[in-house]
Amino acid sequence: MYDQLSDIELVAHFKIENDKEKVFKVIVSRYQKRLYWHIRKLVIVHEDSDDILQNTFVKAWRFLQDFREESELFTWLYKISTNEALSFLNKKRTKFLIPLHDVNKELMKVIDDKSEFSGDEIEAKLQKAILLLPDKQRVVFNLKYFEDMPYDDISKILGTSVGALKASFHHAVKKIEKHILGN
């Protein structure tokens, strides 16, 4: 019944109906795969991605009643998942008192572990290059390159101007090219 509704209609039904669980299940089924892969590209590890995805939906459930619809639902969910993933990485860094490059080394080891990473050699090299990017450039690159998300939507997710995002993406591409080509 609810799975044919638009996001706007789903939010409206969530706010007024007693079937909140059913409506929310539709939202989860509509976005869980996309959000999972977005998170996974940021944190690499499957188990961490699952935990962050769950936290994303817990927050969405908690705050959907107050969603003001100033952005699209998927943009709001991406913003929550991005913030959760970046918070997770920051907590991991501070918990172990290790600098950013050491966390990235840990994640690169996960990529090298064939039981954890299912991509081919080229994809592994790309993922390692992406890990070398600063967090913001990494998020921008992933959303633009893998999700083919418009800059306007990325701007809403990250709260950054379109011009700054284009510059971030350009710098990210140059750094990735440099890493892959070994220059």
Structure keywords:
single chain, 183 residues, Arc Repressor Mutant, subunit A, mainly alpha, 2 domains, Rna Polymerase Sigma Factor, Chain: A, 76% helix
What does this 3D model show about the protein?
- The chain is mostly helical and 183 residues long.
- It folds into two domains: 1-97, RNA polymerase sigma factor, region 2, helix turn helix motif (Rna Polymerase Sigma Factor, Chain: A); 98-183, Winged helix-like DNA-binding domain superfamily/Winged helix DNA-binding domain (Arc Repressor Mutant, subunit A).
- It has nine helices and no strands.
- The protein has helices spanning 7-16, 20-43, 46-63, 73-95, 100-112, 121-131, 135-146, 151-158, 162-181.
- α2 (20-43) runs antiparallel to α3 (46-63) and α2 (20-43) packs across α4.
- The radius of gyration is 18 Å and the shape is globular.
- The termini are far apart.
- The mean pLDDT is 87.
The top-level CATH class of the largest domain is: Mainly Alpha
The structure class reads mainly alpha
Low-confidence stretches: none
Bin the strand percentage. under 5%
Radius of gyration: 18 Å
Shape: globular
The CATH superfamily of the largest domain is identified as: RNA polymerase sigma factor, region 2, helix turn helix motif
The pLDDT mean sits at: 87
Number of domains: 2
